[in-house]
């Protein structure tokens, strides 16, 4: 079995987690809406994650909605003490599966309540405020003061232990750090989407974790002849190489690759033991550079 500890650990404020974790979004149904096609398979992935020593799971109550958290609770509660569950608030699903911004103080309190109830915990370890300014997809400028202050208030009430940000710009991280302690930033980043290169370095200098979403390309997994060539040369799969590249990119990067498959999960965590040479890194670096 893979020793995921080989990839090291990093801090989410006062919580140390292994750098290879698991992203639970793929456990809901198609389009992250409704129940999974195979509930037993979803439960099995989570149990495989615990057996492998994963101590960091990323989720949200808007996956399903409610479904992913309920599956996590069924598979893992009572939770191991060392497990850190990171969730996110800031969106609400429409009846048609649409993703809608929901960042009023009342929305955020309701979302925290939903997460507490469906995960079955008294306090949430880490809650990311997911920002949906602009078209809602990539980060867009605008003040996050009102929603972040509302979330910080829920933290003061003891419902949330730590706060993070998702889909944010460098200016929003700076604004957020003036309001409360920021445990982590979760933005899209992978071998071919490198818009956050400077932000990652800023956060590394500040000791803040950077947790890339879509580390494997998301709904359209990464396809690159350069990635395939390196993988073939070193006898690994392209997904393993993409994850190993992220691990070496910066010490504050924590991985949460998503999968609904135990076989893919095991394949992905083996990235912890993959060594990339300077030549491999140069070749991979040129893909998104
Ligand atoms: N903050 C945000 O706005 C945000 C947005 C998106 C996601 N997230 C979080 O980030 C996590 C990771 O993102 P993600 O799951 O969307 O994308 P991802 O990790 O980049 O990729 C997941 C996709 O890759 C496939 N896959 C996984 N391992 C594979 C392998 N070894 N071989 C081939 N295909 C493989 C999965 O399909 P199978 O199920 O078939 O393996 C799935 O289609 C999510 O689980 C979620 O927790 C956050």
UniProtKB/TrEMBL annotation:
Entry GO terms, CC: cytoplasm
Superkingdom of this protein's organism: Bacteria
Keyword Signal (UniProt): no
Keywords from the UniProt entry: Oxidoreductase
TM region(s), chain numbering: none
NADP-dependent oxidoreductase domain segment(s): 19-286
GO molecular function: oxidoreductase activity
Pfam families linked to this entry: Aldo_ket_red
InterPro entries for this protein: Aldo-Keto_reductase, NAD(P)_OxRdtase_dom_sf, NADP_OxRdtase_dom
NCBIfam families: PRK10376.1
Official protein name in the record: Oxidoreductase
Organism listed in the record: Sandarakinorhabdus glacialis
């Amino acid at each position: 079995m893979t020793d995921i500890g080989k990839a090291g650990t990093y801090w989410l404020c006062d919580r140390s987690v292994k750098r290879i974790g698991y992203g639970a979004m793929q456990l809901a149904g198609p389009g992250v809406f409704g129940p999974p096609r195979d509930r037993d398979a979803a439960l099995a992935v989570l149990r495989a994650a615990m057996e492998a020593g994963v101590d960091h799971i990323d989720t949200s109550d808007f996956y399903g909605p409610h479904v992913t958290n309920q599956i996590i609770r069924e598979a893992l509660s009572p939770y191991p003490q060392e497990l850190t569950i990171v969730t996110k608030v800031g969106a609400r699903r429409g009846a048609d599966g649409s993703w809608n911004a929901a960042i009023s103080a009342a929305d955020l309190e309701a979302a925290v309540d939903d997460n507490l109830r469906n995960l079955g915990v008294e306090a949430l370890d880490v809650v990311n405020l997911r920002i949906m300014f602009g078209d809602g997809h990539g980060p867009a400028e605008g003040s996050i003061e009102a929603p972040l202050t509302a979330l910080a208030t829920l933290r003061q009430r003891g419902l949330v232990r730590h706060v993070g940000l998702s889909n944010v710009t460098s200016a929003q991280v700076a604004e957020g750090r003036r309001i409360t302690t920021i445990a982590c930033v979760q933005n899209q980043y992978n071998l071919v989407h490198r818009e956050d290169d400077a932000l990652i370095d800023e956060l590394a200098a500040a000791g803040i974790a950077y947790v890339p979403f879509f580390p494997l390309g998301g709904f359209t997994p990464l396809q690159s002849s350069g990635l395939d060539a390196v993988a073939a040369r070193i006898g690994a799969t392209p997904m393993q190489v993409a994850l190993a590249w992220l691990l070496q990119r910066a010490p504050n990067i924590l991985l949460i690759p998503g999968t609904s498959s135990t076989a893919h999960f095991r394949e992905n965590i083996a990235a912890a033991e993959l060594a990339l040479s300077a030549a491999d890194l140069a070749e991979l670096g040129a893909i998104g550079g």
